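Person: I have long wanted to understand how a fold can be written as tokens. Underneath my words sits a plain record pairing an amino acid chain with its backbone structure tokens. Those tokens are not coordinates but codes from a learned vocabulary of shapes. I should like you to check that the lines agree and flag anything odd. The protein I mean follows directly.
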Amino acid sequence: MRRIFITAISLVIGVVATMAQPKAGTFSIIPRLGVAIAKVTGDKVYTNLASAYGDATHSNYKPGLMAGVDFEYQFCDMLAASIGAYYSRQGERFDDVKEAHDMSTKQWNEVRDWKQHHDYVNVPLIASAYVADNLALKVGVQVGFNVDGKMEYTEASFVRDQAGVGSTESVKKIKGDVKLKKVDFAIPVGISYEYMNVILDARYNIGLTKVYDNIDGKNSVFTFSAGYRFSL
């Protein structure tokens, strides 16, 4: 019985040690995988497809993959710092755009499923303050390097017949490149919780610089990820 009791106590101590946050002086590698939910503030598409006037549909959040790794050093029980490198698919989407028309209009257009994919390699420098066991608040600075920009949407043209019924005349897929600024700066703020070396992390990246040269829109990005700590 004594051996069983000692074994059980040893197992509990081992689990608690595994659950605990890293000790001071520990260096860790933390691979991460998650989702980035992004939009560009201030960007819009006008419903009058012929010119930039009329009602507008604004940028909406769209999800994308994020994956990368953090390198973290634990200075003391309450403070750690990390630098990371992530691939992040950001961008934006727009609601379907319908050109205004009435019964006298013989032909009109619609734009559907408008999405823009902005691919970045982000490098965040983060300070983590542990406010409770395994629970950390995070703040830092981040520089992002744009590596690609694509857009896609579906354009449909309609014609009204003599009975006043709209029928599809043509539908085509449009794809193209998007010209983005090469460097992006942001302030990440967030929270994380660690359990048995698994780290759940949520952040909001506050964009500081314009995404496009000709539009005063900034990245607005939420990230949610899971990582695993390898202590060295």
Observations:
- The mean pLDDT is 84.
- The chain is about 10% helix and 65% strand.
- The radius of gyration is 25 Å.
